[in-house]
Specification:
Chain lengths: ~450, ~500
């Protein structure tokens, strides 16, 4: 390793700003611009900035998000960054305006009810019901989570669009078999961006190069495992973020795991190898105890935002399945701690996360459990540390189940491969392994 | 595999006989189904070798291609198949009923639809391939075929495409229909063998299912149900017979091939009708009629399309066509799942185990509970249910109930074995709930987070308005002589 070359070395902030400027400069030149954003790379900041940029040109703008929560978040940020900008929000009839959105946007179920705001924000589902108007500009947020059939329903509403999203997260899915369309360039089960780029290969694709969320301990791991060809780096350097405990530990396995996570950003709390049901009672309990113990230790974070205590709201517990989430909830978590599936944790940020490994205790590794996006979401939500709870034996399980999906003609090869990504993450976690306490 | 299905399989293994996975039949069974057992030439995707077809168990029709590599003979085979299938299909088009619709013109719907029953998944795929290889053929021009061949191709394609809709019954694979209702003590791969599956479900007297299934694995006793043939039969019997025909294409040589394949088809023919009898012995679930109605409507539509002289179904879906088919398939899947659970306590038990549904006793009700003030005041009856099920539902989740279809309830709270619900739909529009709409204290009820309610999706653009993101409007299709050609042929 060589010491950073001061002077020639570009700061992460400058690097990111250069990309954002390039995106804004490309907007008028192309019909569509795609921006890939790794976890916490300032995607929302870019959307808000681009919205202001486009609105400043005096052209009406539509913003398409995927969930109502994302729409509300965007409105709050837009209102904060551009106080004078009139914002409209289209919603379903049974939508209750949350407090944080009140007074920041005109809300209505139909366009005429909104007046004529410069920016209208709604979910893709809602936009599909808005006919007979054409916007010069659209911004599609979380475009990789949007199924291409949704884009087909609304693409007639805009002339040009900026597509922003994270290619490493979970792909959209369907409850039916989609083999019939495999290989078609407009396969409705592909993401909106995949279909867009297959039909318009000349569109510029920009990549945000810096993750402001992930600490220096996590960015290289996540980047190497899930973004092997388009890496990114952390916005903070080693040692700039620290996690410590105000309360002394007792050298139990739980405490050791938490201390390992505080010191290195990662911990693997490893239970003995065993095939279990999905709601593995021991693993579920370990997750719950770790969360409780974490709060008992009165954790403190030091970062570019200053020194702050870690409150329950800043802790998340993640799992692959809904029944696992329910089981963890039933096992007793401290009030205020978020617990949810990978699908629902997408786009959210916490200080510390505790996750139940999707392959823990399994006999087989199905495509669902191997999907790289699932593990990517779970291992990239934290600003400080991530504790993984798993049964031993996952590397052996992976070796016994190499990905062997049948090859379909004309289907572009997708990277990263879930199997390989899982191996990469496990190889790193092995360095931060703490053996579980014997179960009583 | 659900926990319940795994348990049933273990029990089947332990006792040696198949265990029921359903209390009612979840697929419609026609009064006059057509059984179709196709065989194809080994190593070819869609080269028919022989088939046995018919609607009468006592009178199977045997169709044979004495030299399957000869394309003229192949299309002679399909013309012969058309003679069997087309009269069957056309006979069902005549009787119709008038369907009244709210806000739309009434329309005519056929009273019945064709039902083709094939042995397994492979045969379904073969029907699809046979349809594809015949529907673009023409009665004039180069390589002309009998005019019935392209019509047959369109019907086979209709059946195969309709079969992709969850819950459709126009083209059933016997092994899949049986596996939906019975669990065996063998693997799912082995269940794809019709003979051994039936061995488990209905073993001959004096035998256990396990031993009957083992015996069924001998291809000399029970030849494979197709479309692939037994390799031993191929080398020892079929190849010499075809070679003899090749050298002297006489009637006798053709008959020799025919007799050879008959030995392979006849055992399966018997199995197919046994499978139909077994399925017919189960009472039909209430939802099957509704799903069959959708099949009938689809059949009626396609009949009309054919009568109007529309082009054959395209090889690939366009962007808009794919999206609209996906929406329809997803809707069919959701309602199929919900209907099966509501029709069958054993299927519901699977959902109860995963926490998506629960059964319990009503311990308290507040039938006159209201929410909101003034004109916005709404009746929202409350009920509290005691349950021992591991209900894993979030507050706000929408639930339905098999006891009162059309009713919707919302979870208010779940705590310590007590679930509080508020009824939000299907309790009447008056100030008080309709009598019987709110369960009484002491009543046993079941609620599930499954719904077969239909929310129409937002409209799609017309194909000629396909946006730039999806490749723009597709070029107009002009029928051409090259249509039947495939990239790989």
């Amino acid at each position: 390793m060589t010491a950073p070359m001061t002077g020639k070395d570009v700061s992460p902030g400058l690097e990111a700003a250069t990309v954002v400027d390039a995106v804004l400069a490309d907007l008028p030149r192309h019909r569509g611009v795609v921006v890939d954003s790794p976890p916490g790379a300032g995607k929302s900041t870019l959307v808000v900035r681009a919205a202001g940029h486009l609105a400043a040109a005096g052209e009406p703008l539509m913003i398409i998000a995927q969930t109502n929560e994302q729409v509300d978040d965007l409105i709050v940020r837009l209102a904060a960054e551009h106080p004078g900008l009139p914002i409209g929000r289209l919603s379903a009839a049974d939508y209750l305006v949350p407090e944080r959105v009140m007074g920041k946007a005109s809300v209505g179920t139909k366009l005429p009810e909104l007046g004529d705001p410069a920016v209208v924000v709604a979910t893709a589902d809602k936009w599909a019901w808005v006919g007979d108007r054409r916007w010069p500009w659209a911004i599609v947020d979380e475009a990789y989570q949007m199924r291409s059939d949704k884009l087909l329903r609304i693409a007639g509403l805009f002339e040009r669009a900026l597509f922003v999203g994270d290619p490493g997260q979970l792909d959209p899915f369907s409850i039916v078999e989609g083999e019939r369309w495999a290989g078609l360039s407009w396969d409705p089960l592909q993401s909106a961006v995949a279909v867009l780029l297959r039909h318009n290969p000349g569109l510029p694709v920009h990549r945000l190069p810096v993750s402001w969320r992930l600490p220096a301990t996590a960015a290289p791991v996540v980047s190497e495992a899930f973004y092997p060809f388009t890496g990114f780096k952390a916005g903070t350097g080693p040692g700039e973020r620290r996690l410590s405990f105000a309360v002394q530990g007792m050298r139990t396995a739980y405490d050791l795991a938490l201390e390992e996570a505080a010191a290195s950003g990662w911990a693997l709390y490893e239970l003995p190898s065993r095939h279990t049901v999905r709601t593995d009672a021991e693993a579920v309990q370990a997750v719950a105890v770790l969360a409780t113990r974490l709060l008992q230790r009165a954790p403190l974070t030091f970062s570019e935002r200053g020194e702050r205590p870690v409150t329950p709201e800043r802790i998340a517990v993640g799992a692959a399945h809904r029944d696992q989430v329910a089981a963890i909830q039933a096992a007793g978590l401290p009030a205020g701690v978020t617990v949810d599936t990978a699908n629902r944790l997408q786009g959210r940020e916490y200080d510390v996360t505790i996750i139940l490994h999707p392959l823990s205790g399994r006999r087989d590794a199905t495509a669902f459990h191997l999907e790289s996006g699932r593990l990517c979401v779970l291992t990239s939500r934290h600003r400080h540390a991530c504790v993984v709870v798993a049964r031993a034996g996952i590397p052996e399980l992976l070796d016994a189940h190499p990905s062997a999906d049948s090859v379909q003609l004309n289907v572009p090869v997708k990277f990263p491969d879930g199997w390989e990504a899982n191996q990469a993450v496990l190889a790193h976690l092995a360095k931060h392994r703490v053996e579980a306490a014997p179960f009583r | 595999m659900s926990t319940l299905a795994a348990l049933a399989r273990l029990r089947a293994l332990q006792t040696g006989t198949a265990k029921r996975l359903a209390t009612v039949r979840h697929c419609h069974l026609s009064e006059r189904p057509m059984v179709f057992i196709p065989l194809r030439l080994a190593g070819e995707a869609a080269a028919p070798l022989a088939a046995m077809a018919g609607t009468d168990p006592a009178r199977p029709r045997l169709l044979v291609v004495p030299q399957p590599r000869d394309r003229d003979l192949r299309f002679a085979f399909t013309a012969e198949l058309a003679e069997i299938l087309l009269p069957y299909v056309e006979g069902l088009q005549k009787a119709t009923e008038t369907v009244e619709r709210r806000g739309a013109e009434p329309y005519e719907r056929c009273l019945d639809a064709p039902q083709l029953i094939v042995p397994n998944r492979g045969a379904v795929a073969f029907v699809h391939m046979l349809g594809r290889s015949t529907r673009f053929r023409r009665a004039e021009g180069p390589y002309a075929v009998h005019p019935s061949v392209p019509v047959l191709g369109r019907w086979l394609t209709f059946l195969a495409q309709r079969a992709q809709y969850p819950g459709s019954a126009v083209l059933l694979a016997a092994t899949e229909a049986l596996s939906l209702h019975w669990a065996t003590g063998q693997s799912m791969l082995e269940d794809a063998n019709l003979a051994s599956l039936l061995g488990w479900i209905d073993p001959p007297a004096g035998m256990t299912g396990a031993s009957a299934a083992r015996e069924a694995e001998d291809p000399l006793v029970w030849p494979p149900a197709g479309p692939a043939t037994d390799p031993g039969f191929d080398t020892e019997v079929l190849v010499p017979a075809i070679r003899a025909y090749e050298q002297r294409p006489t009637e006798r040589a053709a008959a020799r091939v025919g007799e050879a394949v008959r030995t392979q088809l006849e055992p399966t023919w018997g199995l197919m009708w046994r499978a139909i009898d077994l399925l017919g012995g189960l009472p039909a679930g209430p939802g099957t009629a509704a799903r069959w109605e959708a099949d009938r409507a689809s059949f009626t539509n396609f009949t009309a399309q054919l009568a109007e002289g529309g082009p054959p179904q395209p090889k690939r879906d366009g962007a808009v066509g794919a999206a609209s088919r996906l929406a329809r398939m997803e809707r069919a899947q959701a309602s199929y799942d919900a209907q099966r659970a509501y029709d069958d306590p054993l299927v519901m038990a699977g959902h109860r185990l995963t926490g998506e549904a629960f059964t319990g006793t009503v311990v308290a009700t507040d039938p006159d509970h209201t929410e909101g003030e003034g004109r916005g005041r709404k009746l929202r009856p409350l009920l509290t249910i005691r349950t021992t099920d591991p209900a894993r539902l979030a507050p706000g989740a929408r639930l339905g109930t098999p006891e009162r279809r059309g009713q919707q309830a919302e979870v208010v709270e779940i705590a310590g074995g007590l679930v509080t619900l508020k009824i939000i739909k299907g309790m009447g529009r008056g100030k008080a709930a309709t009598p019987g709409a709110v369960p009484e204290v002491g009543e046993r009820v079941c609620y599930a987070a499954l719904s077969d309610e239909f929310q129409p999706p937002a409209s799609l653009p017309a194909p000629e308005d396909t946006p730039w993101t999806h490749g723009g409007p597709p070029p107009e299709h002009v029928p051409a002589d090259e249509d039947p050609e495939e990239e790989w042929s």
